[in-house]
Amino acid sequence: MVGNFIARDNPVRAVNFIKELREKLHHIGQNPLLYQLRPEVGLDARIAVFGRYIILFRIIPARDVVRVERVVSGYRDLPALTR
Predict the structure, then answer these.
(1) Per-residue DSSP letter, 82
(2) Per CATH, is 2-81 categorized as 3.30.2310.20?
(3) What value, to the nearest 5°, has the Cα angle with vertex 55 and ends 50 and 39?
(4) Residue (of 59, 1, 2, 3) closest to 28 by Cα position
(5) Angle at 25 between CA 23 and CA 31, to 5 degrees
(6) Collapsed DSSP state (helix, strand, coil) of residue 5
(7) How much is the pLDDT for 62?
(8) 37-53 as b/e, with b when 16 or more CB fall inside 10 Å?
(9) For 44, phi and psi rounded to 5 degrees?
(10) What per-residue confidence (pLDDT) applies to 9?
(11) What pLDDT digit, counting tens, does each position of 17-50 carry?
């Protein structure tokens, strides 16, 4: 997990990072349609930028749910992750 990686060098920053990430995830959950569809990444895939990271998620309308698939480095090749 990203928080564990950050905690190795800076435990206080790791706690703040997780808090900020949870706030971002809450915002995504409340406003998922604000984020563009990214079909090159996957069917119904959407992304949100969080600092140097990308949050990959989908909206599951039948259950009125936002499902976070991954949180990855923004430097990653996103289409390659889904192959």
Answers:
(1) T
(2) yes
(3) 125
(4) 59
(5) 105
(6) helix
(7) 85
(8) ebeebbeebbbbebeeb
(9) 65, 15
(10) 92
(11) 999 999 999 999 999 999 999 998 888 999 999 9
- The model's pTM is 0.85
What DSSP string runs through 12-81?
HHHHHHHHHHHHHHHHHHH-GGGSPB-TTT-TTEEEEEETTEEEEEEEEGGGTEEEEEEEEETTS-HHHH
Residue reference for tokens 């959407």? 46
Sorted by where each begins, the domain ranges of the chain are 2-81
Residue 41 has which token pair?
A: 């990444």
Burial environment of residue 31 by CB neighbours within 10 A (0 to 12, 13 to 18, 19 or more): exposed
Residue in the block written with tokens 């706030």: 23
* Residue found under tokens 């991954």: 70
Structure tokens at 61: 């309308």
